[in-house]
Amino acid sequence: MKTTSSERRLHPVSIILHMGQLLPRMLLPFVVLLFTAPQQRKALVLLMVVAAIAAVVALIAIVGYLRYTYRYDERDLVIRSGVLVRNERSIPYVRIQNLDASQNVVQRLLGVTEVFVQTGAGVEPEATLSVLPLAALEEMRARVLAAGGAARPVSGAGQAPPTAVSDAEQTTTGGYSDGDQATPGAAAADAHARHTLLALTPRDLVLAGFIENRGMVLIVGALALLEQAGATNRVVERLIDTEDGSLRTLAGRWLGDGGVPVLQGAVYVAAALLLALLFIRVLSTVWALVRLHEFRLERTGDDLTTAYGLLTRVTATIPLRRVQTIIVRDRMLHRLIGRRQVAVETAGGMTGVPGAPQREPIAPIIPEGQVPALLGVLQPGLDLDAVEWQPVHPRAFGRMVRSSLFWPVALSVVAFIFVREWAIAVFLLLLVNAIVRARLRVRNLAWSLTRDSVIVRDGSFTRTIRIARYNRVQVAAVRRSPLDMRTGMARVRADTAGAHRGVVIPFLSEDRAVVVQEELVARTAETAFTW
Amino acid sequence: MSETAPTYGDIGDGVSARLVADGAAHSLDSRWITYRRQVGWLNTAGHALLLAGAAVFAVMVELVSAPVAATAAGVPVLAIAAVNQVWPGLAYRYAAWRLDARALEIRRGVLWRSVVVVPRSRIQHSDVSQGPLERRHGLGTLSVFTAGTKHALVRLHGLDHDRALAMREHLLRADEDDVI
Predict the structure, then answer these.
(1) Distance, in angstroms, between A97 CA and closest chain B CA?
(2) What does the alpha-carbon distance between residue A402 and residue A383 come to, in Å, rounded to a whole number?
(3) Under an 8 A CB cutoff, do B114 and A478 touch?
(4) 0.90 surpassed by pTM
(5) What ipTM was predicted for this assembly?
(6) Distances from the Cα of A13 to the Cαs of A17, A64, A133, in angstroms?
(7) Which of B117, B121, B149 sits opposite A476 (nearest CB)?
(8) DSSP code per residue over A11-61
């Protein structure tokens, strides 16, 4: 496998890392079998199978490594890859929007990083280099920048972060578009003009983690791991099934032998449930602390950059022009402590690095007082306080309740099969839930067509404000379901290139919907859309 | 291409625009109903085959008696046939389209009704396609692609094929003058 002198390879350690990705999944069942195999000969055979698989995987990894090369041509970054089918990809430097990076723990220890080459349109990176030494990443950034690309240096991924500023510095948006990249010198100087918009302290992360309550994800992940190792059955056995299953003995000790008074039993169950829920919240908090460690949101010229993560360090860049919709979100707990969450949708997906496990909002948690400043950066001139909110149809509440009856009824019917009379309790609970939600939602629901954008406020317990600029709106559609037609309402959708299918105004009166659609089309048609 | 049908293709800009992008509301081509009914027959036949097979199987494994199986299979087939016969007429009634200098508007739906408006400046590109049955009836489908998500692809069925081609041509030519 000859390479010219200018062709470079990935870091050799990528062979091992690649193997490390493929092997566990393939080998784990065999390894487990190995430890449970009683006979000597069976064990030997298994060992040989494991060794054979490992050897094959190693071979694939080595050949893949040798075949993957990249070089810096005059105008393009050229990447060649492929074992059986050879592929050569040329990426002009000027098309490279940014170079995002992600490092997990092992990669950080080894001083290497995964690099994602992002170009203008589309969500998936044009190319992924896994893994490069940090120095190579810096070289790539420098070369791309010098040759006319926009790969600005970002804090994180091996660089010392700038001194943390915890308030949202609203330095004026004087840094205008240097999107031409005509003079490398000017570009380089501007590239260092970084303004920190948000830096989260561990306290912020604790709050964020507690509120978002994503502990279940970790538990499900752990269960999945157990399942892969084929160990679920044994774990379940140990805990519950057998005579000395741990949970059973615990339960026995609590409840005593013989019967349990119903009330006491119920109290114990409730307490156990509460503890479990609390535990999940705690897990969620810990995960947020790890996942969003040292979260930083910066503005560099025309881009937003985010950096975060303790085990996996992620740095990602979002060009402001790629923002399709802005979402301001808050749950009940957020509102209780005066916080919000701000996210943006870019073409086809949320922000974040493809390789990273999660795509994070640009502001996972932010004091509500700092939201206007952040919105001002994302969309100059956007002022939520000055919006003239319009209501929806006056009978929207009734319509909402009618359409929300489906699940309570369906679930109650199912519940009836299991718990007979208690199904009524189920139905009542679900009904009350639906009515309360509808009430809250109706009070919150509002919309507006401002000078630049369409804005909708929605949600009951978790509220969202979605904002889409007219120059990001693609299609204006009005839809009426049979229930809508009976109640004289309609739903308007301003479709965008973002993930959640644009901005929707539900429960408008039919006539209003037509007017709104007409207005949307008028404003949209007079603006141009650029990626 | 029949000789009596108007040709939209080679006429100069102004005239073709008038014919194609006249801003007036149009119904679908009336041949579309017949076409959809024929598609409906194919659909019914397919379901009938499936259900008949299931019925025969059920009888063979002595799950149910023959008359029961015949009814259980026959009734749905009749229902499907009825719907496939009636639906195209209904769909035709509630379908319409309009193309002017500013946007393409498409109305459709019987139970769930929608009006989709695609501003011309948001059309990324467009296709005209013709299935084999459509070809027999001289019909075509105009597909318009946008950068949206829910409406990334907007289809307009039931157009006269030549008209569809002319519309696409018109969209293309006007597009060249647009700022993209």
Answers:
(1) 19
(2) 35
(3) yes
(4) no
(5) 0.85
(6) 6, 12, 9
(7) B117
(8) -THHHHHHHHHHHHHHHHHHHHHHHH--SHHHHHHHHHHHHHHHHHHHHHH
